[in-house]
Specification:
Strand order of the largest sheet: 7-6-3-8-10-9-11
Shape: globular
Number of strands: 11
Oligomer: single chain
CATH topology: Spore Coat Polysaccharide Biosynthesis Protein SpsA, Chain A
CATH architecture: Alpha-Beta Complex
CATH class: Alpha Beta
Number of domains: 1
CATH superfamily: Spore Coat Polysaccharide Biosynthesis Protein SpsA, Chain A
Radius of gyration: 19 Å
């Protein structure tokens, strides 16, 4: 993983990332192949999954998380799925991403593209920075901790690759019962999650069981067209509101979850639910 010379982006951050080894291949013009050949190529073309990992002080979990992600044997229609890992460091102060700039780290994780914010801006801003560099057919959001298990990737991306939907959410509550508690989740966070899911369901008349899940998987072109503005944890309600307002169907699949508390580095607080709730309302009626 060879790092390119840092460049300044419009927000004033210094961004440093790997050389463009994962750039999408050029698409041939339709006139270059007959329709039948083009259709065959479309069904057999290699698919790419872009995993965006926003990071802020995750020194204790990031190396293991990266190892777990790249260990997934992802395939579609008999072909391996290319994996693009985009780590966006939101100005961490624990040195937790420095290993990716060392020779050993570059050798261990050659597929990682590291982008660094010059100042802390928030999770939503980090995701938007990663999205600007993503080249995959499908984008998956992955927290840098170990609450969510990459073993769930195959069932998360399958509905999109099969053309059933453009949006998949990994639900921590699906199949557990309406009032089921999750191991490791604080009661206040559980209540906040439930209120946000009920609000989204009521606003858009669509059943949503886990609005605040980290595992949001979307067709990259759709995600880019949403014109996201989120800076912090308002990323989740903004995406939910905008995809539902545009009439897209969210397919939810059950996932595993291993919650952690504030003493283990969890940063979101139940008070963030108020901002998220107002974000759902805002984007329900205004874009």
């Amino acid at each position: 993983m060879t790092l390119a010379k840092p460049r300044a982006n419009p927000a004033g951050d210094v961004v440093s990332h790997a050389a463009a080894s994962a750039e999408a291949p050029p698409t041939p013009a339709a006139s270059e192949a007959p329709p039948a050949a083009a259709a065959t190529a479309a069904t057999t073309a290699t698919r790419r999954l872009s995993v965006i990992i926003p990071v802020y002080n995750e020194k204790n979990t990031l190396p293991e998380l990266l190892a777990r992600v790249r260990a997934q044997p992802l395939t579609w229609q008999g072909q391996a799925i290319e994996l693009e890992l985009i780590v966006v460091d939101d100005c961490s102060n624990d040195g937790g991403v420095d290993f990716l700039e060392q020779p050993e780290g570059r050798a261990s994780f050659p597929e990682v593209r590291l982008i660094r914010h010059e100042r802390n801006r928030g999770k939503g801003a980090a995701i938007r920075t990663g999205l600007a560099c993503a080249t995959g057919d499908v984008v998956l959001i992955q927290d840098a901790d170990l609450e969510y298990d990459p073993l769930d990737y195959p069932k998360l991306i399958a509905p999109i690759l099969a053309g059933q939907t453009k949006v998949v959410y990994g639900s921590r509550f699906l199949g557990r019962g309406p009032l089921a508690r999750l191991p490791g989740m604080h009661p206040a966070n559980w209540l906040a999650n439930k209120l946000l899911s009920w609000t989204a369901s009521a606003l858009f008349l669509r059943r949503v069981t886990d609005e605040a899940t980290c595992y949001k998987v979307l067709d990259r072109r759709l995600l880019s067209d949403l014109h996201l503005r989120a800076e912090r944890f308002d990323f989740c309600p903004e995406v939910t509101s905008k995809v539902l307002r545009r009439g897209h169907h969210i397919v939810e699949v059950p996932i595993s979850y291993h919650g952690r508390g504030g003493n283990e580095g969890k940063k979101i607080r139940w008070t963030d639910a108020f901002h998220a709730w107002f974000t759902l309302l805002r984007y329900r009626f205004f874009d």
